[in-house]
Amino acid sequence: MKMQEKLAQLAKIDGFAGAALLTPVGQILLKCEPTGSNIELISSLANNVLRTAEKASLDMGFGHSHFTFIHTEKNLILASCINEGKSPLQSEPGNEPGKCHIHLILLIDNPGSFGIAKLEIRKTIESLAEDFRIDNTEPDTEDTEDDEDTRRTENLKELNDSLDDENIDDAFDSLLT
Question: Is 30:162 a contact under the CB 8 Å cutoff?
């Protein structure tokens, strides 16, 4: 399943109002937003809350925090993190083989869906993490810089293609049928 399709699965939650996958520093990698929501701004702010909660939980001696939520008058904002690196607050996993660090923000406008939303956000981020892990296999031959550049270009092209508005529309249409 493509990354955008994995993210779009969250739209099945009753009260879905948007979702975004981000880097730890807040760069949006994928988004899925119905009309009327400003997922870019909301997810950026929610990402900051998650980062603050991560630091605070360590400062309090409770260990790494991987989930937080905000319950407002209008929406619930759920924020989840997968950080498989050695440092809980490091933005990147340090290019450790088989590791990734991503954040997922989910907005819902039905408080009754909180339980299912909490389960689904975790399942979705774990599924998306598979697409962002650094390959931990040793190549049979040494890669040249051209091979690495080609692989990066292909990965960026796949990500860019998945962000295409037509693909997003198709993903939503498939949810409705």
Answer: yes
Q: Which domain holds residue 122?
A: 3-135+147-176
> Global pTM?
0.71
d(CA 141, CA 164): 35
The answer to whether 85 and 92 have CB atoms below 8 angstroms apart is yes
At a CB cut-off of 8 Å and minimum separation 6, what does 157 contact? none
Q: In this structure, is residue 60 part of a structural domain?
A: yes
For residue 141, being part of any structural domain is answered with no
Question: At 163, is the secondary structure helix, strand, or coil?
Answer: coil
Q: Alpha helices, DSSP H only, in 72-144?
A: 114-132
Reported as a single tens digit per residue, the pLDDT across 90-140 is 555 455 656 888 999 999 999 999 999 999 999 999 999 988 876 655 444
Helix segments in 24-144, DSSP class H: 39-59, 114-132
* pLDDT attached to residue 155: 60
Report how many domains make up the chain: 1
- Measured distance CA(139)–CA(147) in Å, rounded: 11
